[in-house]
Design a protein that fits this description.
Layout: H1 2-28, E1 77-79, E2 83-94, H2 99-104, E3 110-120, E4 136-140, E5 145-146, H3 160-164, E6 175-184, E7 190-195, E8 203-206
Antiparallel strand pairs: 1-2, 2-3, 3-6, 4-5, 4-7, 7-8
Length: 208
Amino acid sequence: MMIRHRNGGLTALAAALGLVAVAGCGSTSDPQGSGPSTTPSATTSPSPLPSPAVSLSPTPATSISPPAPAEPRLGQKQATDLGDVTVYSVKFPVQAQDDVATRIRTKGTQFAVADIKACSNGTTDSDGYGFSISDFQLVDTESRTYTFWNVQLGARSPNLTDSLSSVATPRAGACKRGWLTFELPPKTRIVSVEFAPSGGLPLSWKVR
């Protein structure tokens, strides 16, 4: 009877130990356990610093000026407030056809002549006159200007001084052509003929 009692106690003890073992195994194998996760957390890389803003200044547009119109040449007609004017030619130096002109010419100068035609449109300038010989001048390479030589005489005929006086009092459609005489220093280089009326814009004809 004593042996049977011992065996029964041992059996009960073994059974109790087995239950404890089973309970321990269940707690360690539960995938839904509340213990801390051993999965390593993802490493967060630092964000790159933003590049400094580059200020792009607009490139200034290149200003291209239109080419200046070509200066009219000899033989071209130009319109003025008083009418049309054409300068056909310039000759320098020339000998005077009139001996009187040669005698009264300024010592040390030479004659130049310009072949000019003026056609009135019937209007007048600010002084109440039409074309005048004083409106014409020669220009040299040094930008010096030369006005007409003499009111009564000229180096060549027909003398524009005589014929232009008839259109000093304007009459629409009246045209006169002749030579206008100038005195210039020897070896002067003439570059243009200008028509520069009082109170008006000058017009120019290129000689060379």
